[in-house]
């Protein structure tokens, strides 16, 4: 978290939280959702400002209940998730030829486990505690397939992450992802249902 954010929190500790205004979509784009977008259930406008994107990514965290938020100075802006709290891109390093995963902020994501959901989505969890859940950007499915041996059942297999490291591809249902990995996809829906943010 940026020092300027910590200072603002110390100075104004009781600023009300905000929900519904910020979305991380299925492709890792941050989107601003004004009143009209929220009323229409639309994803909102993509944020393109490089410095603002960096600020959001540096100050993106989860609370104790699994709700992800962007700490905007003294105000906590809870994030609506298009799927998981992180979206990763898969690429091959130009020098070493090794596969790399990076999250929507450009940070390295070291996978500990891989999953295939019942709609064909690929997910990873990392080695942090608690583990972070990320969905693979759909533009990278071909590269992922080149390094995967899918079992005959079409629901499991092996992902060759490194020459000496194979991740078992475990099946799971998309409807169970949020609960299984302990995050809240829609803090705004929780507030509307009468559950307060912590």
Your description of this structure?
It is a single chain. The chain has 198 residues and is α+β, with helices and mostly antiparallel strands. The chain has 2 domains: 3-83 and 183-192, duf1285 like fold; 86-180, no CATH class. It is 20% helix and 36% strand. It contains 6 helices and 14 strands. It has helices at 3-11, 35-40, 50-58, 141-146, 177-180, 187-192; strands at residues 18-24, 30-32, 45-46, 60-62, 68-72, 75-81, 86-92, 99-102, 111-117, 122-126, 133-136, 148-150, 157-162, 165-172. It is globular.
Backbone structural class: alpha+beta
The largest sheet has its strands arranged as 8-7-11-10-9-14-13-12
- Biggest β-sheet: count, sense, barrel? 8 strands, mixed
Classify the beta-strand content into a percent band.
Answer: 35-45%
